[in-house]
Design a protein that fits this description.
This protein has 290 residues and is an alpha/beta fold. The chain contains 11 helices and 9 strands.
Amino acid sequence: MLTNFGLFIAKVISYLPLGILFTLADIIYFIFNRLYAYRKTVIDLNLINAFPHKRSAELWFIRKNYYRHLADFFVETIKSISISQKELRNHIELHHESYAQWKRYEKTGQHIFVVLGHYGNWEWASLLAGLESNLVSYALYSPPHNKTLDKFLIKNRSRFGCHLVPMNHMKTLYSNLQKETSFVAFVADQTPVDTENAYWTKFMHINTPFFKGFDTLARRTNAIVLYLSIKKLNRGFYELELETITENAKEEKENMIVEKYVRLLEKDIEHKPEYWLWSHRRWKRAGINY
């Protein structure tokens, strides 16, 4: 009941102009930074371990900027409930060179896999994907335990044409890929539960497990695999850039696609660390006790 009421309020708020919503974001940022430090311990432990050579003052500066971005992301996510196609395209766009590259790959007849992280505004990027692709579009996601919230997320994230597939339904996705050429998006920096079958590698100086299902699926279907970099230009404005990981996944050795993805995500985080999701327990299975 509480979830339904909260979602109703979020939907009503979503119709407000972004300018007003960013005033709400300023209030949220003030609360996070001055009154209630949201998940401060988790953020600080992540930053300390990810940047062992930075001074404390530098790390707390990153945390402060992260709170600013998190507040913006919160209201931008609310806005995504009612945002129009035109307004979405005004606020997030694919760089012209990447757009040309994307259209060229669409003509190859191969599946296109795009891997990204919880960086920038991945929610808007996922919405845009359904608009820009001429292929049948899928996005892998991790379903929440709350069924009402899960139904809401499916409806909201798929309203521009992208079909959501739970991460534990990879066999269903593989079956669908046998039928027609498709585009698939993977937010691939989730924390895997099955760490024994995960791919482990150094990520931000920490031995870290990663899902490798997209690596296996890409090689099995000989997909083109691209990394999506999300650049925040200003409040509410983003630009997307694609970088090719492989044009023939079947030729890649096992786990090499995951490894290349990790290195590209790491590069983005090191360049602008405040835009990654530091408040989740990314390394809870990697030895950090939160």
